[in-house]
Amino acid sequence: MHFEIMDYELPTNFDVVVVGTGIIESIISAAASRIGKTVLHVDSNNFYGGLSSSFNLESFLKLNIEKRKSICMEHSSLNDTETFFPINNSDFTLDEVTHQWNITNKNKNYSDEENSAQEDIIAKEICAKKWLKDDLLKESRKFNIDLTPKVQYARGDFIELLISSNIARYSEYRSITRVLTWFNNTLEVVPCSRSDIFANNKISIIEKRILMKFFTSLDDNEDLIIKDYASKTYKCFLTDKKLSKNLIHYILYAISNSTDSTLCLEGIGNTKKFLKSLGRFGKTPFLYSMFGSGDLPQEFCRLSAVFGSVFALDQPIHGLILEENSFKSILIGKQKIKAKNFVLGLNLTPDFFLNKVKKKFISRGVFITNKSIMDSDNEPLTLLLYPAENDKNPCTVLELPWLSSCCPKDTYLVHISCNQINNPEDDLKHCVKNLFTLNEDFKAFKPLIFYSSYFSIPTNSDENVNLHDFNNLFICPGPDSELDFVTAVSKAKELFLKMYPDDEFLPRAPDPEEIKWDGDEEPSDIAQ
Amino acid sequence: MAKTYDYLFKLLLIGDSGVGKTCVLFRFSEDAFNTTFISTIGIDFKIRTIDLDGKKIKLQIWDTAGQERFRTITTAYYRGAMGIMLVYDITNEKSFENIKNWIRNIEENASADVEKMLLGNKCELEEKRQVSKERGEQLAIEYGIKFIETSAKASIRVEEAFFTLARDIKAKMEKKLEASNPPKGGHQLRASEPQRKPPSWLSRCTLL
């Protein structure tokens, strides 16, 4: 923001200081604030969400140069009994970011400059999908480009938490319109609902019966399955069930989002999760948050603020001060801020607590295209679960139309992600080649790429954290490669209950009309 | 459930800490004034339904939840807002100067066609005035928006302000009913959503 001088100093005494505004930090912040704890929530970035954030096109294009300088700190403010742990300031560590434009500012088809302006208009009228680079840049604000795109299961823990805590009132969702898979070198719609299965002409009548029977049997024979298949793969289980090759493909790679090596019980769990979420809000089990996944951490921050948390972004956060085996305060700018508990995002954690385990990454691709990967009458939100191929990992492809409020009309925004093997471009090459074209004159059905970007997202699990028995420091892992936020919710809850074992995790927030303001009395319906 | 209104307008209050945004909100929604809710704990938004030219208009008015203090209003706060009340305190020069910054913030985050209005609050404190009415008017003209001086405490022109903003939004909306409105029709997830039995996937199967 552009406000010249910070008008106020931060208050200096809190129950909890939360550093970083990723999804887990934000959920914990909301939960602590909700039960009446005083919370200071800070970030060294000038935006919310960290690696879970979304950006408009212009900001997204600048991402690769926005690495923060490490901050030097004066130790003069420490006394003898205190030990200083500098915050690791490699906090925004997107890696290997590239941007490529496949369109120019000039329309190639018109060589005569004088007429081009007028002809451009005509061309636009004939073919509404003729975009120039400048046109897309002018629409920059209509883009909301996720660093870590997420879809949510309609009955998954994240959506249930939004509803039970009343945070759902801050957001709107769209149903994913269809789930696709890549099978025999072509895109196939995965039959989700019963009617989908019956409408599907790629599956024979017999297969349909077998499939329905299979889904029923999952609930019935649980004990037997656990006994016989505890150490076997889901693929093995499906094969034993005598399912045909294409049914196995649908169930294994799409419905259960599994691989050949996924264990049976995990595969069954995923399948049930998929089936359970059907029919709640739409034809597929998945929801996508309008305006991008980056709004989700912000919604928890909003609730946290509504219950009194103090928020400050763009803060010079130097480090933590330890005194007699527990952390006493944090140095932010020239201020020493005291707190009983400290919650840190893993990417802001002092190196001292991190074992030198090799970091893992997610390979990401972002594409702006002119049409959907599979034609449709309406403008679909598409989730393509692209199975592993040769030496490549499975890829998750999320294609968003303008209805998602993530891109302008007549464009599509496509996210591709997979667990990294080599580098983003190499890991996603086969998938990109099969789905898109770069050649404008190519008269194929494939969408044309206007713009593409590749980058790596570190996926920091907390396996490599060693807290050395300091019991008032809580570390939140970074982004994961799950489709949804299920792991984030359980991690946030776990850390919150470690901090406050006797308190309720995000009880329902009252609706505004339930809060009574009666003269000078304190409001009755808010946490104490 | 039958809809009890014709239109729902989402309005935002924006401006520096201490200019009286929450007091303006309470004056309009509850016709009350209470200086004890200085920090705005627990208040998300308030609702009041008004009549305009025979239409019932439900105004959902959102407060900043204190996130204006260190300029950390979430970008999500601006989603879907149709009107914004920019509030300053006529006894506080700085809050008036910062209006320009808030407008820039709105331009970066809110929808381009959001209706804006400037409020100079605390106009009952004439003896402490630092910002003349003329300067308020001038700034409003500069940005092509409407201006009004209000007092939440003395209940002066707060009604008028919200009615004016609502009327302007209504007019704009009716004028371009078919124009390219932001996409509508996302799901609002409600706890009251019919609790169908979850594993109904098979129970709804009638053909096999």
From TrEMBL, chain A:
Under InterPro entries, the record lists:
FAD/NAD-bd_sf, GDP_dissociation_inhibitor, Rab_escort
One CC-aspect GO term: cytosol
Q: Which keywords, in A-to-Z order, does the entry hold?
A: Cytoplasm, GTPase activation
Question: A Pfam family name for this chain?
Answer: GDI
Location of the protein in the cell: Cytoplasm
Q: Does the keyword Coiled coil apply?
A: no
Q: Which residues form a coiled coil?
A: none
Give the span(s) annotated as Disordered.
Answer: 506-528
Q: Which Gene3D superfamilies match?
A: FAD/NAD(P)-binding domain, Guanine Nucleotide Dissociation Inhibitor, domain 1, Guanine Nucleotide Dissociation Inhibitor, domain 2
- Per UniProt, the ranges with Acidic residues bias are 519-528
Q: Which family is annotated?
A: Belongs to the Rab GDI family.
Summary of the function given for this chain in its UniProt record: Substrate-binding subunit (component A) of the Rab geranylgeranyltransferase (GGTase) complex. Binds unprenylated Rab proteins and presents the substrate peptide to the catalytic component B. The component A is thought to be regenerated by transferring its prenylated Rab back to the donor membrane.
> What name appears for this protein in its UniProt entry?
Rab proteins geranylgeranyltransferase component A
**What organism is the protein native to?**
Brassicogethes aeneus (Rape pollen beetle)
From TrEMBL, chain B:
GO molecular function per UniProt: GTP binding; GTPase activity
Report whether rRNA-binding shows up as a keyword of the record. no
Q: Does the keyword Lipoprotein apply?
A: yes
Report the domain of life of the source organism.
Eukaryota
Give the subcellular location: Endomembrane system
The cross-references to SUPFAM superfamilies, in alphabetical order and at most eight, read: P-loop containing nucleoside triphosphate hydrolases
How does this chain sit within the bilayer? Lipid-anchor
Q: Which SMART domains match?
A: ARF, RAB, RAN, RAS, RHO
Q: Where is this region: Disordered?
A: 176-208
Keywords noted in UniProt:
GTP-binding, Lipoprotein, Membrane, Nucleotide-binding, Prenylation
- Primary subcellular site in the record, as a coarse category: membrane
This entry carries the following GO cellular component terms, namely: cytoplasm; endomembrane system
Q: InterPro entries, from UniProt?
A: P-loop_NTPase, Small_GTP-bd, Small_GTPase, Small_GTPase_Rab
Q: Name one Pfam family in it.
A: Ras
Say which family it is in.
Belongs to the small GTPase superfamily. Rab family.
Q: What is this protein called?
A: Ras-related protein Rab-8A
